Amino acid sequence: MSPNLSLFLLTIRGTLASPTLEEARKLHNSTAGNPSNITAAQSLGDISHMVYSPLEKPKKGAGEFLIMDIWNSTEGLNTFFADHNVQEQAGQIFTKRDPVVWASAEGFAGYHFPAPYGRNDRVVAVVRGTVESREKAMTVHNGIVGQISAAAHKAGDLSHEAYFRLAPPNSSEPLEFLAFDVWMDAKGMQTFYGQPEFMQGLGALFMGQPDFSVWTHPAGDWTEW
User: 13 - beta bridge partners?
Assistant: First the structure.
């Protein structure tokens, strides 16, 4: 990646308004996945749009939903979501939602390993919480990643990325950190994360209990790019 290329992660996590995941799929594809909306978003800097549902199926209703978009322009992102129609369509998809824009955590270790041929399953593990400072978080985080990356890949981990919530300069808001991994093996992931050493590392990284969630691609043909 070029050092001059700034990319931003938009996460939208919320509860689906539709009674079933199949109805949510149709609604998503006719709104966010409408060709005119895709063209408008891409013209403003939306490079990638991926959708996920929880690995554990909901007991009732369509459950939660996670959208992860990569943008190359915060101005374009703000312009797109300022549109009344876009906001109205988002309100149709979700009963409640939490949209957050994240900037890449500079200096934080990450990796992207190629997937072996035929290993096509994808599971996304997301951890989010507050940290004391960028410097302390980077030291702890990079120490963890340096120790576990090879073992994590052996268990089925393909990538690791780290972000900080985008905030105005000198903001007094808590420093919020997010990291996500893409796995090709759900069982390997569960075994790896079940190790006490891993959980201890998370405890050293975050202030308080972080939010940890696991997602996979929902069934059916969802419009993504």
Answer: 66, 98
Q: Do the Cβ atoms of 133 and 175 come closer than 8 Å?
A: yes
Which CATH code for domain 8-104? 3.30.70.100
Contact 126, 213 (CB under 8 A): yes
CA pair distance 24, 30, nearest whole angstrom: 10
**Tens of pLDDT along 187-213?**
999 999 999 888 888 889 999 999 999
Query: For the chain, which ranges sit under pLDDT 70?
Result: 1-4
Range list of β-strands (E), the chain: 8-16, 46-54, 64-71, 94-104, 111-112, 123-130, 157-165, 176-183, 211-216
Sign, CA torsion 98/221/103/186: positive
CA 204 to chain centre: 22
CATH number assigned to the domain covering 111-216: 3.30.70.100
Angle at which helices 196-205 and 134-155 cross, to 10°: 160
Put simply, whether the predicted model's pTM sits higher than 0.90 gets the answer: yes
